[in-house]
Amino acid sequence: MTAPDFHDLTVIFDLDGTLIDSAPDLTEALNHVLRSEELSPVEPATVRSLVGQGARALIERGLELQGHGLPDEHEADRLVGRFIDYYRDHIADHSVLFPGAEACMDTLSSWGATLAVCTNKPEALTLPLLDTLEISARFAEIIARDSLPEHKPSGVPLTEILHRTKTPHGVMIGDTVTDLGAARNAGLPCFLATFGYGHVEGPLHKKEQRFDDFEALPQMISDLMSAS
C-alpha cells in the first residue's frame, strides 16, 4: 500500500495527557507544596483531572481537599512559586511518553507530516521537559501558554503554527475540552486521546474523533484527510 503524502499537513500535539504522562511529577510537585504547609498529600488521580488548568488550580484543589480555604493573591503566588521551583528541578523524574507515541511520530514524519506542539504549559517548563525526554528536535514549532498573547482554547496558537510551518492543513491531537475548543476555533480537525486526562464527554463534530492508542492514530488521520 502506498504511504500517504502528508507534506502539506502539520500535526499539532498537546503535551500533558496526550503525548506525555506527566501526572506523576505534577503530583510530586503538588505534594511538595502541601507537605511544606503540613498538609496531607493527594493522589495522582486528583492531579490528572486538573492538568491543563495551571499550577494555581492544582494548589487550590489540593487545599480544598484538606478543608482549607482559597489563599489570597500573595499567598497563592508564594505557593505557585514553590510548586514551579520544585517541578522545574524534577520535571521528568517519572514523566514518560505514552505507549506508542514515539512510533506514531516516526510514522507521521515518514509520511512527510510536520510535527508541532501547542501546550498551555509555560515555555520555561515546556522546553526543559521536551529536552529531558529528548524529543525537542522532532517539532518544527513549539508554542507554549506564554508564547503568544492568546492560548488554548483560542484558535490563534494553532493558526499561528500553520502560518509558521507554511502548511495549508493541520490537525490537533489532544485530550481535553481546551484542545477541542482550540481546534474548533481554528477550524481544524481534532483527535482526542481516550487515555488522557480530559475525558471529553458528549458527541463530536464530523471531523472530530476519539482514539484509544497511538498505533491507530496515523491511519485515522490518513482516513480523515482522504475524506476531506
From TrEMBL:
It comes from the Bacteria. Mg(2+) binds at D14, D16, D175. It is an enzyme of class 3 (hydrolase). Its cofactor is Mg(2+). Pathway: Organic acid metabolism; glycolate biosynthesis; glycolate from 2-phosphoglycolate: step 1/1. The active site is at D14. InterPro entries: HAD-like_hydrolase_sf (IPR050155), HAD-like_sf (IPR036412), HAD-SF_hydro_IA (IPR006439), HAD_2 (IPR041492), HAD_sf (IPR023214), PGP-like_dom2 (IPR023198), PGPase_prok (IPR037512). One of its GO terms (cellular component) is cytosol. One of its GO terms (molecular function) is metal ion binding. Its EC number is 3.1.3.18. GO terms for biological process: carbohydrate metabolic process; DNA repair; glycolate biosynthetic process. Keywords: Carbohydrate metabolism, Hydrolase, Magnesium, Metal-binding. It catalyses: 2-phosphoglycolate + H2O = glycolate + phosphate. Specifically catalyzes the dephosphorylation of 2-phosphoglycolate. Is involved in the dissimilation of the intracellular 2-phosphoglycolate formed during the DNA repair of 3'-phosphoglycolate ends, a major class of DNA lesions induced by oxidative stress. HAMAP family: GPH_hydrolase_bact. Belongs to the HAD-like hydrolase superfamily. CbbY/CbbZ/Gph/YieH family. This is Phosphoglycolate phosphatase. It comes from Parvularcula marina.
